[in-house]
Amino acid sequence: MLRQLASRLLLALRMSFGETVREILAASCGSDLREASATSPLPELSSETVQRTLAANLELAFGIQIVEGDIAHFRTVRDVMQCVRLRAWERRATTEAAHSAPAQPRRDPRPVRPVFVASSRDPRERILRYTPQARLAFAAVPARAK
For residues 10 and 97, what is the distance between their CA atoms, to the nearest angstrom? Predict the structure, then answer.
């Protein structure tokens, strides 16, 4: 049974995220949930054994840790997907923070003075106002003779 579950999990890793979660749900709950929508309820999760099996399978497949409080909130397929996404994001954020945290450089004790850049030397050049050329209100403009 464990070998069969492991082969299903390996197959699930090649699927999309939603398909993978549904496949793991189907393997853990013992019912066919592969075609379930995101709002499909999960009545099978009322059993504590099924909850622990699902948590273990999700942890194996996605490399995350699911706490007991998360399992209690699983009501629909969407709840499971959101939990997996959240825990995967937390794992990535903590590993990236651990790897990318350089040693703090020594700060210069002198205060940093702000640098102001002048946009123009003439203050009138800073503001540009566009007004279209006014039309003349004359009744008739005499044409110039050439």
Answer: 29
pTM strictly above 0.85: no
Compute the distance between CA of residue 36 and CA of residue 146 in angstroms, rounded to an integer: 86
Residue 21 to residue 11: CA distance in whole angstroms: 12
Q: What is the rounded CA–CA span in Å between residue 45 and residue 52? A: 9
Closest C-alpha to 94, from 65, 114, 126, 59 = 65
> What is the full DSSP assignment across 14-30?
TS-HHHHHHHHHHHHHS
Beta bridge partners of 76: 41
41 forms beta bridges with 76
DSSP conformational letter for 14: T
**Token pair belonging to 80:** 């499971």
pLDDT of residue 45: 87
Per residue in 10-50, pLDDT (tens digit) is 555 566 888 888 888 888 888 888 788 889 888 888 889 88
- Cα separation, 137 vs 43, whole angstroms: 81
Determine the pLDDT at residue 87. 93
Residues with Cβ within 8 Å of 122's Cβ and at least 6 positions away in sequence, in order, are none
Torsion angle defined by CA atoms of residues 47, 53, 55 and 57, in that order, rounded to the nearest 10 degrees: -150
